Amino acid sequence: MIKIAHLASYDINAGDNIASYNIRKRLNEMVDQKIEWSSVNILPFHDVRNNIEYSRNLFKKVSEENDLLIVGGGGLIEGEHKFQTYYKLPFNREVLAAIDIPIVAFAVGVNNFRNRNRMTKEGLNNIKAFIDRCELFSVRNDGSQEALSNYFNNLQVPEVPDPGLIFGFEADRKEAIKNGLFQPAWNSGDDIIVGRGLFPANVEKISNFIKELDLKTIPHCPKDYKFPQIPVESFQWNQQEFDELIKYDNFMKIFKTYHEFDYGIVMRGHGQLCSVGLNLPSIYFSTQDKVLGFSLKNGFEDYNVDIRQSNWDQLIYEKVNKLKNDKEYLSNWYDIRNKNMEEYQNKFDDYCFKIRDILQKQGQTNG
Which residue from 184, 236, 234 is spatially nearest to 214, judged by alpha carbons? Predict the structure, then answer.
């Protein structure tokens, strides 16, 4: 029996749920011994603002009871000057000193919001201490590698496909598309909303294309229900139903629902990543750099619309029309996606094999 503690966000965001789920699924398939997983939810740490004593005591217990600590996936490298570690993860040198087992960071994302910069010198020092302590450290393939390099003067770290890309099941390739979904992104911070360009005039345009294209709205977290002017009837589930679906034991239904549609217009990073993994042709509506970054790094730039473009709403309609009526445009999306997926799967598996090697070495040491 191998015991792995997994630090991630649970029960609040479908994208974060699928990232941790797909890591576990693949390791369960690869590792000969049975794995006993324990979930370490990051949300209670944030409730106490990454209190150092709380974090140190909890990770000391985690270390005593497990063989390995996995951190990620999800966008966990983000400055937060209100936290005692000065970034979203609850690690500084004092907390890390309480951990005696190997740590693996799995395709963590660097979140840079366009109108928020809460990174401090103290936060950067703690992030670097965490990177140095990890047996394996990797960032996801959405521009996070470049962002981290900018933070640390060309520091090079491995890039691994986001686990939200690796499902193991996908929709059939379609020759024609008709019905679409809209995957929104709303945040609680006013500064983030401004950075996303979600001013009233733009919100109204979003509401208009949902109605005119007859889209069904598929949220990823409860905050998405606060998106102004989205017609209530467009949501696939009411909020009470969604609050049950988002729980870790139930959330896969959200992604299986993607297969009921022919295409998507998606805003969240995991809306983008999961639509690729599930083989759903989509237009990537970037209001955050990680969506644009993934499009540029992975060959989808012709399927990206950024809200900073003066004619972004016109481009949404034009690109959806091309998906529906230009067979070459639709076929090219599939070709780009299929070529990438082979590489994604290989790199994802390679990283999982490295984790398996650590577990085997850990077992020999403990034996």
Answer: 234
Q: Are 106 and 72 in contact (CB under 8 A)?
A: yes
Reported as type and span, the H/E element at residue 210 is helix 200-212
Q: Are 179 and 214 in contact (CB under 8 A)?
A: yes
Nearest CA among 209, 238, 255, 188 for reference residue 17 = 255
Domain 2-166+342-366 and domain 180-340 have a common topology: yes
Give tens-digit pLDDT for 251-308: 999 999 999 999 999 999 999 999 999 999 999 999 999 999 999 999 999 999 999 9
Instruction: State the CATH class of domain 2-166+342-366.
Output: alpha beta
How far is residue 290's CA from residue 306's CA, in Å, rounded to a whole number?
A: 11
Strands (E), the chain: 2-8, 35-41, 68-71, 74-77, 103-110, 136-139, 180-183, 216-217, 263-266, 282-286, 304-306
Domain ranges of the chain: 2-166+342-366, 180-340
Whether pTM > 0.85 for this model: the answer is: yes
The predicted structure's pLDDT at residue 365 = 52
Whether the Cβ atoms of residue 141 and residue 161 lie closer than 8 Å to each other: yes
Q: What is the pLDDT of residues 107-124, one digit of tens each?
A: 999 998 999 889 999 999
Cβ(282)–Cβ(263) under 8 Å? Answer: yes
The CATH code belonging to domain 180-340 is: 3.40.50
